[in-house]
Amino acid sequence: MPFYQSRGHLPNKRHIQFRDDEENLYWEELISREGFSHIYSNVYHVHPPTAVKKVGKIDPVKMEPWNQEHRHHHIQTRKLDAIGDGISSRIPLFFNSDVILSKANATNSMDYLYRNGNYDECLFVHGGKGSLKTNFGSFALGVGDYAIIPRGVIWQLDVDEPLELFIVETDGPIETPNRYRNTMGQLLEHAPYSERDIRTPEFETSHSEGSIEVKVRLAQGLQSYEYRHHPFDLVGWDGYYFPWIINVNDFMPITGKIHQPPPVHQVFQAPELVICNFVSRLFDYHPEAVPAPYAHSNVDSDEILYYVAGDFMSRKGVEHGSITYHPMGLPHGPQPGKIELSLGAKEADEIAVMVDTFKPLKMTKAASIIDDPNYPLSWLDES
Questions:
Q1: CATH superfamily, domain at 249-377
Q2: What percentage of the chain reaches a pLDDT higher than 70?
Q3: Rg of the chain (C-alpha set)
Q4: How confident is the model at residue 1 (pLDDT cuts 50, 70, 90)?
Q5: Which end is more exposed in the chain, N or C (fewer Cβ atoms within 10 Å of the end residue's Cβ)?
């Protein structure tokens, strides 16, 4: 997120001596993107962030692809047997070289810390309540929150009420869309949300002490480290690199006289994919408008739609928490009767999260267990 933030105590210049009341030097750490050529933050530790007591074994993360036929899919994710903490309960369902899409039901708080060293993360909170604690500060988490966690941020998820999460891990940064920003990075007047809607970390003034396990996500799996000092020991930080949150209900939908295409619903971008959200909104106001979307063929992208709340106008028989997957090369659109039902409707009552990828997705074997094999036939007119 390209806007400056500052927390805690800082020296008046970077890379100079910065001491506590007893004249002990604080430890400066630079956390940066693209080496030294993009956004960064400087953070200041009480203890050296490099002190590791023990390197544990790596726990491989394997995603077994399901070599299914090329067709539409309806994945009933609430049938997954997935409980645990914010990491152990994750079940990957789709992946390619740019993204991993998972579902999790975090029933337990984490008793260790986590750092994703390979992917940026977007945690969408479908249900529940908790807190996201990071080395930059903490957030309260609630329904509808998108928590954006850049790679390298160290974090821990505490659960107050079981958290139902839809998780997007990306090979590159998750950002606000280019077309909604000016050349200085500020969100423009026509953007569907502004910096006022973005929550940044609440800095913790008390410092955690003692050694702790940090699990680091790498390409091949989870590597465990025992840090000599708890990394949440910052006295201050500033810069442009930090975790942040926006709630889906703060997205102000763009509407029009006739049906608007899906790009108006975009909320984030990442390399080779976009994340959109459909929210409650007024329908089109042309006297002959057709509010339901027209049939379309995504010849260059795969479409994932995660259903959150309300009555989705173009689908039937799809529950909250389900995912529909419409792969590239196949047309899809409203199911029979949905166009007629939409005529004259004044507003939509729905929330859904959409991920469009520009490379084909692979499904995992975990997805095969909860797939509705009859979904491809749901466009047949049974009347």
A1: Jelly Rolls (2.60.120.10)
A2: 99
A3: 22
A4: low
A5: C
**Positive or negative, the Cα torsion across 312, 314, 316, 322?**
negative
CB 41 within 8 A of CB 244: no
Q: Where in the chain is the domain with CATH 2.60.120.10?
A: 5-63+84-248, 249-377
Buried-state track 91-100, b at ≥16 Cβ within 10 A, e below 16: bbbbbbebbb
Q: Are 328 and 298 in contact (CB under 8 A)?
A: yes
- Report how far residue 304's alpha carbon sits from residue 144's, in angstroms, rounded to the nearest whole number: 18
d(CA 21, CA 149): 33
Q: Which residue has the tokens 């908790």?
A: 130
Tokens of 344: 């004259």
**What is the architecture, at CATH level 2, of domain 5-63+84-248?**
Sandwich (2.60)
Q: pLDDT digits over 55-76, tens only?
A: 998 999 989 999 889 999 999 9
Contact between residue 144 and residue 15 where contact means Cβ atoms under 8 Å apart: no
